[in-house]
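Form P-L/3: holo structure prediction, ligand magnesium ion.
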Amino acid sequence: MKTHSKYVCQQCSYESAQWMGKCPNCGEWNSLVETIVSTRNEKLKIKNEKLEKPQKLSKIKLANKTRISTGIGEFDRVVGGPSTSSGQGGIVPGSVILLAGEPGIGKSTLLLQLTDALLAQRNFAVDFSFSRDKTHTVEKALRHSQNEASQNLLGSTGSCLYVSGEESTQQIKIRAERLGIKGENLLLFPETDVDTICAQIEEEKPLLCIIDSIQTLTTADLSGTAGSVGQVRESAARLAKTGKDLGIPIFLIGHVTKEGAIAGPMVLEHLVDVVLFFEGERFYPGRTLRSFKNRFGPTDEVGIFQMAEKGLVEISNPSELFLHERDKEIPGSAVVPILEGTRPILVEVQALVNQTSMAYPRRVASGFDPGRLSILTAIISRRLGLPLGSWDVFVNVPGGLRVREPAADLGVALAIISSFKNKPLPRGSFAFGELGLLGEVRRVLGEEKRIKEAKRLGFTKIISPSTCTSLSQATLFLRSEV
Ligand code: TYD
Ligand code: MG
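OUTPUT (holo model):
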């Protein structure tokens, strides 16, 4: 049966047979999205399939979801699992995972390495019947899985399917060579028609399928171009259904741009089980993998990688990546223990204060929120009486990490004051705490964890809500002039 489509306004559900730039009903621009019309019969079928009775909460048993360890510890940590804190976790068979990030950040590299690690494990499992306590190798996970569909995979060829709509097989081969991946059981499939891809998944029954990227796929049932909201959504829905039916995990790569974060793959947010963001500054090696949504685990874990010559390297000791050797006391620098998810990381915050030559003083922040910087300079000017109104203030977090926590306030403020007064903070000191508008230092989450990490790295002098209650008190820690 030939399906047909209509255009539906995402704002008010107005329907039209043609695309229009502006919804005639609610007046919203660009809100009409092409959608497939399901006939009455299909709707009835779906309704009957879904007929379930309400159940008592107390009677519902927790299914022990078996997970497949990917072989990349930092990745498993982010998707979560039975005991995430020990770094053990993995992907749930049949789940759909959206990996979003800016172009060039390393999404294709990460997933290519992931297939290699996963396949290496499987071979290992076959050869040595190797298994770890909590996480499972592919083989074992499938055997333990209560999901009937994933049982089918036990007999599968044991390959990973990498669908590339973006790069040619030649380009992927070049990347694989660079990463040292032979890819014995990695199948490359340059295709953009989602129905062909689904048919291929059904035939091949791979252990895992990667779509690079979802914005390149189309279905002939819709007339929109690749990357339009209608095509992206429908393609993802079809893949998700195929994956769920067969118990095959599906990875969707999605590009986001700095400006258009919402228009991009976020239209898929409700459709997928897990949304991961791969972030970093392009010219810095540090990369973070964050989970934004996770139906099977927590969303507060962060994986940390470094982009190196031969691909991404897991960083289990991130402080060492972001903190430089500090053998001299220099004005304008503070060490701040921040929390990324549940993990403490020590970073250096640098500030430079310079007399302005413009009508308005400049406030420039890199790796830190510019709005927050304005507030901090205002607090410093008012509460300490420093005339920052005629000084430019620059703040930088070297290493390419983005600091978003209010707990960094005190460290940033001290770095600014330190630069202004040309007095360094003492060696071995670190600072954290939120700054209130009255200049008070407020308590923050995870103080013990932060202190522990700082001490581990040899920082002993604590500047925190427990050692100072106000900003002016904290400035007493500054050394005398150098
Ligand atoms: P890529 O995975 O193609 O990014 P995405 O799929 O997110 O667009 O990676 C792009 C960048 O990573 C590219 O600019 C080169 C760099 N890179 C390395 O530094 N080392 C490597 O081993 C590889 C494969 C890539
Ligand atoms: Mg890519």
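COMMENT: Confidence is low (pLDDT under 50) at residues 83-87, 124-134.
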